[in-house]
Write a structure and sequence with these properties.
It is a single chain. The mean pLDDT is 89. By secondary structure, the protein is of the alpha/beta class. The N and C termini lie far apart (56 Å). The chain has 9 helices and 11 strands. Helix 5 runs parallel beside helix 9 and helix 8 packs antiparallel against helix 9. A 5-stranded mixed sheet has the order 3-2-1-4-10, sandwiched between helices. Strands 5, 6, 8 and 11 form a 4-stranded mixed sheet that branches. The chain has a two-stranded antiparallel ribbon with strand order 7-9. 38% of the residues lie in helices and 21% in strands.
Length: 286
């Protein structure tokens, strides 16, 4: 049986996507796999060019841009592997990361999803291992009482940039840049597909929430390493719009935690902190 289906979404990222596929060919070993490339109505070039360059890939072409969620669901529908890897087009394997994660999943049935250590092109670590936001978490960050905790407890409680990402972690959610999980879990999800509440941004939080609701753990493995350009498919002029969309989606997601008056308390803290940071960042760039 085919072990792994690697799903990559392309939206006007031809060269990045080619680099990603080339890195898979170079680094991925000892796994039977297929590469499913979903083109989300790109205008950069004819997606058939990918097949000319990589004849072995399975190309899925969408007539409209269905977003990150829709594209991945199209890839999942076309996948024949026992396990699925959602991999961003702006990533490149540094080592045999999918094999490392696949071996781990097969040995740890309590884990429903694993991710890797993500690195910027300059080698700096990205903080892709997170906790679900909560009133307590936000207050701990605004009023840094976490500093009173021992380092190990602080890292385990906060994760994010408070965790050095150099050791194993059992987390709440991880970035959608690299998510490896058994395909069988898809049928257990509320919609029998990846939740599509969000077109883009915060969809990875929602997917991890759904996995956690099923009783699965989500694990971070630092020994599996992948370079991630990060926002490689996003133009700089759209950054403010994207950031505000992400903030609003995160707030909408939080209603799953606080569907009553507590959500208004969370929203007051969260929006104040996020928009203050956003506008401060804009002022500093002037």
């Amino acid at each position: 049986m085919l072990q792994l289906s690697i799903i990559i979404i392309n939206y006007n990222t031809f060269q990045l996507t080619c680099n990603c596929i080339a890195s898979i060919l170079q680094k991925l070993q000892d796994v039977s796999y297929e590469i499913i490339l979903v083109d989300n109505a790109s205008t950069e070039c004819n997606p058939d060019v990918f097949v000319e360059k990589f004849p072995f890939i399975k190309l899925v072409k969408s007539d409209v841009n269905t977003g990150f969620t829709g594209g991945n669901n199209m890839g999942v529908a076309a996948a024949g592997g026992e396990y699925l890897l959602l991999l961003n087009s702006d990533t490149e394997l540094i080592n045999n990361a999918p094999k490392i994660c696949l071996d781990y999943l097969q040995q740890h049935k309590e884990a429903g999803m694993v991710t890797c250590q993500l690195l910027y092109p300059d080698g700096k670590i990205q903080y892709n291992c997170r906790r679900f936001r909560s009133i307590g978490w936000e207050l701990l960050e605004v009023f840094p009482l976490y500093k009173l905790l021992p380092k190990t407890k602080r890292e385990a409680l906060m994760l994010h940039h408070y965790f050095d990402h150099q050791s194993f972690a059992n987390c709440d959610w991880v970035w959608g840049a690299f998510m490896l999980f058994p395909k069988s879990i898809i049928a257990q999800l509320p919609k029998q597909k990846l939740s599509d509440d969000f077109f883009m941004y915060c969809e990875d939080v929602l997917w991890c929430w759904d996995f956690k609701q099923l009783g699965y753990n989500i694990h971070f493995l630092p020994e599996a390493k992948v370079m991630h350009v990060h926002k490689g498919s996003v133009s700089k002029d759209k950054w403010i719009h994207i950031r505000t969309t992400s903030i609003r989606n995160h707030a909408a997601f939080m209603k799953k935690f606080y569907p009553n008056w507590k959500w208004y308390l969370f929203a007051a803290i969260y929006f104040t902190k996020q928009y203050a940071a956003l506008w401060l960042g804009r002022l500093l760039k002037r």
